Structure formats: structure tokens, C-alpha cells
Amino acid sequence: MNHIPVFKMEKIKLRELKTSDAPSLFQFMSRQDTMKYITPCPVLSLEEMEAYIEERLDGFHKQEEIPWVIEAERGKCVGLFRFHKLNHWHRKAEMGAVIHPDYQKKGVMTQVLLTLLPYGFDSLNLNRIVGDMFAENEGSRRLLNKFGFREEGVLRETDFDGESFQDTVVFSMLKREYEKIKQTFDQS
């Protein structure tokens, strides 16, 4: 894959991540409340944000991930979504997302998944897509349940959040499971 595809939906757009997105992403990826289910150490500087973006783009060039910026009205950067740990031989990937707090619980991730699950399974020909999260992340748990992901299990105390160890819940969807519900994506 030579370029990151652009997807335009009703209220949002997914486009390639660029180094010039650093200031916009830094506004919310530097916030502890935004990153609480991801890392205890949000990015601390614009330079660190730029380095993070460069790592994502390097991963894309190595065909190990696909990073998208999520844009809302008038091109406002409201999030980041990526397929990472992308393995073409094993035909699998993991999902990762960070959404600006003002856009959480507003259907942004529903639109993203309605677009990128078909892209992952149909265009990338993935067999397995994984979403894992801190056990306390009820919003992500509800979202993946809504889409038919199966809870595979809990990995006990996998991550330290700066205060305590957190369990990680692993969800997955297989291509054959996606095929059974694919028509619901077309109707949305």
C-alpha cells in the first residue's frame, strides 16, 4: 500500500496522518483525562507529538500500521484511529483510537467502525481485527459489543497507569463473523 485512503462519511472524514497535525493532536493527546485508558504518560511537548507521528508514519511505510486523522466540521482534528500490529501474512490487525473529549459519546467511533471494519475485512483481506482496552473503559466495551466483537478474555494487571495495575480486556472479530453481519454495515 502506497498511500493511506481517504474516507468521507456523513459527519466526519478519515485522512492520512501528517506531521503538520501535531499541534491539533497535541491539544487533546497531552491531556490526562483523554489518555487515561491508554497511557499514564500523555505526550508532554509538541516535539514529542511530532516524534509520535513520525513513528506512526514509519510504521505505515513498513506496512505495520495505517494511521488516520479523524476530522469533523471544517477540517477540525477530533481524533486519531489506526490499525496497528498489522500483519499481512497472518491477516490480522489491532485497532487503536483517541478521540477529543468534546467528541466522545457523539457517534464518531460508530462512523469510524462502520467504514473501517469493511475496509479491513474486504479491502485489506484481514481475517482478525482486535480491540483491547483497560477493563474500566466502559465506552469502548459497549462500542465493540454493539458491533458484535467477542470478548476473548481478561489479561490480568497488564498495564500500570501510574497509580495501580490495570486489567486489559481483549475483543476480536473474525472475517466469518463479519460476513454474517456485513449487511447491517451497508444499511447504516
From TrEMBL:
InterPro entries in the cross-refs: Acyl_CoA_acyltransferase, GNAT_dom, Ribosomal_N-acetyltransferase
Domain N-acetyltransferase: 12-178
GO cellular component: cytoplasm
Keyword hit for Transferase: yes
Keywords, comma-separated and alphabetical: Transferase
GO MF term list: protein N-terminal-serine acetyltransferase activity; protein-N-terminal-alanine acetyltransferase activity
Lineage: superkingdom: Bacteria
Name of the protein in its database record: GNAT family N-acetyltransferase
Species per Swiss-Prot/TrEMBL record: Halobacillus litoralis
